[in-house]
UniProtKB/TrEMBL annotation:
SUPFAM superfamilies: P-loop containing nucleoside triphosphate hydrolases
This protein's name: DNA repair protein RecN
Similarity remark: Belongs to the RecN family.
InterPro entries: DNA_recomb/repair_RecN (IPR004604), P-loop_NTPase (IPR027417), RecF/RecN/SMC_N (IPR003395)
Gene label: recN
Residue stretches in coiled coil: 155-222
Entry keyword annotation includes DNA repair: yes
Domain RecF/RecN/SMC N-terminal: 2-506
Pfam families: SMC_N
Role according to the record: May be involved in recombinational repair of damaged DNA.
Keywords associated with the record: ATP-binding, Coiled coil, DNA damage, DNA repair, Nucleotide-binding
Amino acid sequence: MLKTLSISNYALIDDLHMQPGSGLNMVTGETGAGKSIMLGAVGLLLGKRADTKVLLHEDRKCVIEGWFEIGEYGLKDFFEEHELDYEEPCIIRREISPSGKSRSFVNDSPVLLEVLKELGSKLMDVHSQHDTLLLGEGSYQLSLVDAFSGAYSELSEYKEKFKAYRQAKERWEDLKKKAIELQKEADFNQFQLEELSSLSLMEGEQEELESNQEILENAEEIKSKIHEVVGLFQDDQFGVLQGLGQIQQQLQNLERLAHKFWEIKERFHSALIELKDLVATLEEEDLNVEVDFEKLEETRERLSKIYQLQKKHGVLTVEELIAIEKDLADRVFEFQNLDESLEKAEKEFHQAEKLMIKSGEALTAKRKSCFSSFEKSMESLLHRLGMENAKIKFEHQSINSSISGLDQIEMLFSANKGSQLQPLKKVASGGEFSRLLFAIKHLMADKMALPTLIFDEIDTGISGEVALQMVRMMKDIAQNHQIICITHLPQVAAKGDLHYFVYKDNSAAKTVSKIKLLDENERVLELAKMIAGAQPSGSAVESAKELLAN
């Protein structure tokens, strides 16, 4: 329930505060005074989009804030789902800066506009011209039937089965498309796989082959150079090792003469050991290097095949060729097992379709079970609203599966005795639409568990006894719901628990809209003006008092 509404710097509103009661709140005022502007601000609070055109003062931000009592509406799960603090009261705030940036807050935590819109839909229902247009749409009528019949669990189960059905269908369709592609590529994929598999490629192989090729191509010269180097080290008369041995002997003599030369001797000894190891390694390499023209040709041939395949597949490494081979193997395997996969996917699709249809039929039965009761309830309400010959009937057609079920419904309507029932949007006039919509709001108020309902001139096109019946029905709703009703009819305004008056204030440089909670005397005067104009007569005042008394 809305406890407090504050609006600042919005359109014609400079600063407005309203504290509606828990029952029936009436809002009146002259045309253009700002009643619709106030509703526009409420719309922003509930998640509608805005721009800087709404700013009264372009150098200040617009702030709209609502305080809501939410303790009885079971919203803790919503707050947990969106990681918001659950507090009582719940404070919703919307800010629009001069730069055009819009921000939304729930209990001072910033939220996305979609979250604000979802929360707002659980707190308030605002009647508008858009609702009147929606009333003629089959999807809207279907949602009313679901709410009236309480088919939420059946609808939820159906949507779950429908989602599984769609997924199974997509998998089957995708597999059939893939089968066509695999069929076209089957022989080519098999050929390429065999071509790659025949090489038995191994990771790191290319680098090793290229290194071996380099050695085999220069084997004779490599061996010759090794022999020369080893000879320079090992020659008996002039070899490096012979000379180094002599140096080692002299360093030992130096160490005996002075101990400080021990470190130099040791460093030389280490270097000598390293050089001897180097010579041994060269001798070992000499043994490994062989002049083998047959092996060279084999290496060249294998590298040539690898290079050809790399060029063919547009890659640079053996590892990439191995990855291509694996992918081809998967494709060939998939093709070879295609019939089995298709059969399994088709079976899963038909099973999902069967479960979806079964769930859809249960939903259909639940919906159809309420048609008669819905029709009778609506007709009874319309009779109370002065449409004593009104008839309502649902026309049902089975359709192929959709997200909302297997049903297409059309609400047929006739306002006059003997007239043929026709689709609602074709036969209802503006006043009839208003009464139809109000009857639906009355019927669905408890079904849809909305804390606050706002009616914006829903009494348009009606008067007299019908208006009185409508406001009596509003009072019925107001026993369990908060209602804010904007009206131009004095007989409607007189029945409110509270009466707010919206007016224009021209005392400052800019005209602004203000709102005032009327006391008993002010209320009598305002009702009299609604009856007889700006200068009401004594009889108009008495009529106003009579309206309030009754």
